[in-house]
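Training component of the fellowship. As part of building independent skills, the fellow (R.M.) carried out the full modelling exercise for a liganded target. The chosen ligand was beta-D-glucopyranose. The inputs are recorded below so that the supervisory panel can assess the work.
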Amino acid sequence: MKKSVFQITGIVLVALLNFNFCHAQKKTIDQRVDSVLKLMTLDEKIGQLNQYNDDWNATGPVTLDSTKKQQVLKGQVGSLLNCVGTRRTRAWQQIAMQSRLKIPLLFGQDIIHGYKTTFPIPLAEACSWDMDAIQLSARTAATEASAAGINWTFAPMVDIARDPRWGRVMEGAGEDPYLGSAIASARVKGFQGNKLGDINSLMACAKHFAAYGAAIGGRDYNAVDMSDRLLWEVYLPPFKAALDAGAATFMNSFNDLNGVPATGNKYLQRDILKGKWNFKGFVVSDWGSVGEMINHGNVANEYEAALSAITAGSDMDMESRCYKNNLAQLVKDKKVPVALIDDAVKRILLKKFELGLFDDPYKFCNTAREEAALNNPAHTQLAREMAAKSIVLLKNEKNILPLSKNTKTIAFIGPLVKAVKQNKGFWDVEVPGVDSNFIVSQWEGLQNKIAAVTTLLYAKGCEIEGDDKSGFAEAVEAAKKSDVVILSMGERRDMSGEAKSRSNINIPGVQEDLLKELLATGKPVVVLINAGRPLVFNYTADHAPAILYTWWLGSEAGNAIADVLFGDYNPSAKLPISFPYSVGQIPIYYSHFNTGRPATNDSNRNYNSSYNDLSVFPRYEFGYGLSYTSFQYSNLQLSKKKINSHEQIAVTCAITNTGNYAGEETVQLYIRDKVGSIVRPVKELKDFKKIKLAAGETKTVSFLINKEKLSFYNEQLQWVAEPGDFELMIGASSRDIRWKSAFELVK
Ligand code: BGC
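Fellow's submitted model of the complex:
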């Protein structure tokens, strides 16, 4: 039988490719990438830059595309997202293995806070200030997801967020660049593990590059207008930290930055990320964001959108199809040099090689391994511990908490008590074949905990939203019969998250009215607030004797809440974001400038920078969080009071647990540069240490201050430490400063 020229060429190519793969050992990965690239047609190259959604689970407008399979067969797709489970991923990979060059697919998924085992939402985890625990949470998620066919997570989201109206505050680490950078690094290390290529390593993706969290008015996808200095000083550091931790990929963002959409932003992607920072991985667009540049009004059509994005450095097009439909023509028209496409393809192939997919395209598709990883009791235990570490004790009058295990009757009231799935929060993963049975509701958690002597009463009281008070009477009856009342209230899990911005962030519905009636019974009431963002709850904050901010804690929510309520875990979490009194204060953050007419307290509002009708301070400040015990700070010492830029100061401070419970304290170090060529914030977090102390125990914490900690971006955007006076503050929060001192930096 005669073979066509095409068939013969194909056979030779595949032979060459196999030869290349077989000699892999002797070649560097770069050489292997080059040898694959040499074999690729322009169409196949463009294919690698193309990412499609599988047929469900969309987080954006889905394009129905019945030719997807054909395109994979032709090598016209580089990656799929929202395709989970070994069976499904294997089936797609098998199709890719029938393509001419057999280049394996990448499988990306939003593994934001766990896969099957759901951990607390990222903002909640950030409250732990515990980098080891946060890393372990990401590691556990990676262990499960990589066993379920996935090799790439679209996480961590490292966007600084200072506006709780923005629904995506839940997905990041809060308002501060120092804490945000530490967490970005921990999460990248957790997802990627020791190295890409390990069987349980997931590629991380630092997103959304950049400044997405500063959307005007807190409205998702909105424009961002900010100075370059603010960008460098506040919004970029967590990205740089993610990069330094080895993040394999970046995702750009939906917003424009100063008039240029991030997806077509050369300054962000080529100049900063791939230029100054020398990033070797690849950049994926956000969902459809290449095509959305037309709506921004920055390009006229998809042809121009593709040109703008590829030129600016976006390597992979998630779902817009602008690359697929236009890049070949752009090359033909000599608008896009093939070298530009080659660069993007090489970056993607490099990661496929590093993951080991060329050696074994099915390495993440082992069903027995998946089964074991998704049923690992150790993961459940880790999720419970992480959840307990994420709960913030906001108020505890007369030490109502922890509850006694001998309490006779507890009334557990509220619309979230028996909720199951709500506890997962936004950005959970629908795992095929797994129902919600394993999620521990708050009711179940308390039942698991209470002793035989305790009776647990229940009343729903009201819904989360709406004005129906018909359930109040039953709730009040239950309260009256009890020794203590626990009221679980908050927002719905899908009230925060992507596209979930809100102009009103009060506790919804009649929930605070219910609290009022419960308090009127005279019984002690402990309030649990479940939310994905800082809510406004002034009535509760003023009147409830005890408040735990429980966020969304994941599949072990109920058990972790019970652990904290009964003192089996002593709360240690501290807020990574300021809580406002009112939306009118937003944006509100601790590291603000002093202004020429600073407001120093709320009693003097005379021609100073305050509100006439509201406090200028937050309801709960950055770094705030109580414990069942108390800590005393003493004996602050500085090894020197004057340093030059090559020297450093050792700072020590003794912390004593003065209460009756063992506990953990996060000691925070803030610095203020008294005089700067650019105005400096009133304080900036520059270090922190979380320590564990037995009752009565004292430990000394130490910090080092060096030039790096005193540096900032000057007017020329140079990173400099200017000689002069500095203030040093050690505190239990950004407001609760326990010790102050001063030092000088000399030339
Ligand atoms: C989000 C990204 C996410 C992507 C894929 C987008 O809408 O902004 O953060 O990774 O969808 O689900």
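The panel noted the following from the submitted structure. Confidence is low (pLDDT under 50) at residues 1-16, 18-22. The chain has four domains: 1-37, 38-368, 379-585, 631-745.
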